[in-house]
Amino acid sequence: MPKPVRYAVFPVAGLGTRLLPATKTMPKEMLTIVDRPLIQYAVDEAREAGIERLVFITGRGKASLVDYFDMAYELEKTMEERGKSKEPLAPSRAGFGELLTVRQQEPLGLGHAIWCARHITGDEPFAVLLPDDLMVGKPGALKQMMAAYEEHGGNIVCAQDVPREKTSSYGIVEPGESANGATEVKGMVEKPVPEDAPSTLGIVGRYILQPEVMDELSAHEKGAGGEIQLTDAMAKLIGKQPFHAVAVDAVRHDCGTKAGFALANLALGMDDPEVAPRLKEWLARNG
Ligand code: UTP
Prior knowledge:
Helix content is 29%, strand content 24%. The chain has 10 helices and 13 strands. Uridine 5'-triphosphate (UTP) binds at residues 11-18, 28, 57, 104, 107-110, 112-113, 130-132, 256.
């Protein structure tokens, strides 16, 4: 049995420049899809997968993400006095000691953000969830990946087929043998141009990683875009530890882009009984 995964790391220190001006004073992960911020979806997915400790990698201007998971004392008291149900607040309350935060003082890249969690995760395996990759599946994407982890151990990345002309937006896997939805990873390259991409299997924002990735990240080597890339550090573990790419049964919405964000609101709105009728009516008239 591989060591259980108890920690999930949520890197939320990015600048979110593609969604400006919305992200000028509001963290990207606090932007709302239907009735809850992106971070809530990612935390729900992690909890469903059995994660016990949530590690946020934050930075300047990100305090609202941590406040969001606090107890809103005045709000709760007023709601109680007015006889209003506090049930909608339940998922946004972290348990005592469930949420841990670390600052990434400079946004030096995703790999660097993960490395900032090393003193918390220590010698334990951990999951990574990028909240702007909203994954809609039942069970959730991370829970599906946990099933593959129990079978194979080692490192697991979530991978989806991407259009060849888009390979330069993803970490791309060089695939080996495949069985039961898990593909052996022989290599990986960050943001290759389509001609150089070893496949069209793109890594999306969910990972289960062994603690040794932190040693690789400590070299602080800069990769694509001059950033410290997680993909480059993960690639160094191939051949030393089991490494698989898992195709989960879930729809991904890239909420770090305007179109992906708008589509996610539409898709999840269509699944919400309170919202769907109005959306359908509007689409029938204007769609
Ligand atoms: P993105 O590549 O989406 O970058 O980061 P970004 O800065 O958030 O957004 P754009 O490109 O400027 O629009 C992927 C994930 O890694 C985190 C981000 O918060 C996001 O969850 N990240 C990225 C960090 O935490 N620190 C970094 O230095 C870079």
